[in-house]
Amino acid sequence: MGRSPCCEKEHTNKGAWTKEEDDRLVNYIKSHGEGCWRSLPKAAGLQRCGKSCRLRWINYLRPDLKRGNFTEEEDELIINLHSLLGNKWSLIAAKLPGRTDNEIKNYWNTHIKRKLLSRGIDPQTHRVLNSSTTIATPTANTIATTKIAVSNNYYNNDNKDSNNNNTFQLINIRGSTLHFGLGSNLEHEFSTSTRSTDAKLYCTTFPTIRTSNISEDHSNSSSVVTEEEGYKEINLELSISLPTSSKINSANHEIIMKNQEPQKYMTYQVFGTTTRVPVFTKGGSVCLCHNNLEFQNNGSQCNCYTPMTTTAAKVCNSGKLL
DNA sequence: AAGTCATGCAACCGCCTCATG
DNA sequence: TCATGAGGCGGTTGCATGACT
Fold first, then answer.
1. What digits encode the pLDDT tens for the residues A5-52?
2. How far apart are CA A125 and CA A127, in angstroms?
3. CATH topology (fold) of A15-61
4. pLDDT number for residue A38
5. C12 C1' – A281 CA distance, angstroms?
6. Residue A133: which of A111, A117, A149 has the closest Cα?
């Protein structure tokens, strides 16, 4: 037996909302608040499905909606978030106050897709079209290879990224924790708050690097150590700090540009996807942790260590809603 | 001016998640 | 543990409008 319908379809209006319907809905929610969408239409005197009311309110009538064109900064933020989250429009919308998931989804499909294609970037994979950069064929110990690279257009041909220094073998994924096997000199290249000299990236690892002879789990993450022969293993929660980047107010999520125009762009690649971000003159960093897609002020590293679980991940340690 | 096509976006549909009993 | 249902989400549709011929 199927689920009972959410409303009596034969008695509900469909299609565009009238001004009168909008007024009724707004007035009702102003008086009674949101919620109980199933019973709302009847209580508000609307011949609409509860879902339809909810959608109309969330996507159009809510007073905190930001109408109007998307800014260039919002574009870049959406692109960056999409490269990390995929079509998780609600999660992306959560990072853009005043924008709805539906709005962002439509905007993506009508504008940003084309914008990325014009840049030569595949909008779905965020990889450079016809790029020679590919994920390496997995080996027995390797799920995939990823490469963190900084494009030459920012580092002015001073990119020392080599095949060895910034290429990691992704061994395993446990929860939100990525386990990479690296070559030698692991500690030198990546430790908490240590700046990678070659890539000029802040790479922060939680917990500290493990090798096969370290048995104690002194992490504050949920990972369980297993040994993959031939690899050192780390939990890598990656925070890439832009040496000079946009200043982002993480408290209200608004990008404060103050007439700054991006002078350069920095391209980075994570897990085979390419992301391009504008680089401004003020300091800051972009945290790419799975559970905290936030811009950080002052180049600080991300403090969110909350393991991603189905429910707990919605709020990280720093109290930010995800 | 009329017809056709392309585009943008509001709205719908059906499935999924999760809280609750 | 399971069933149920409300709320939420992403994909898709269809209409209004503008551009083009």
1. 455 555 678 888 988 888 888 888 888 888 788 888 888 888 888 889
2. 5
3. Arc Repressor Mutant, subunit A (1.10.10)
4. 82
5. 42
6. A149
Residue A67 CA, chain-centre distance (Å), reads: 23
A106 touches strand B (CB under 7 A): yes
Per-residue confidence band for A72, with pLDDT thresholds at 50, 70 and 90: confident
Highest mean pLDDT, choosing among A91-95, A126-130, A265-269, A293-297: A91-95
Q: Which residue is nearest to nucleotide C8 (CA to C1')?
A: A90
pTM of this prediction exceeds 0.85: no
For residue A140, give the nearest of A169, A179, A182, A173 by alpha carbon: A169
- The amino acid occupying position A212 is S
Instruction: Map tokens 């999520």 to a residue.
Output: A253
A122 CA → C20 C1’, Å? 29
Range(s) of chain A covered by CATH 1.10.10.60: 15-61
Nucleotides of C strand lying within 7 Å of any protein CB atom: 4-12, 15-16
- The pair phi, psi for residue A233, each rounded to 5°, is -130, 135
Nucleotides of B under 7 A from a protein CB: 7-14, 17-19
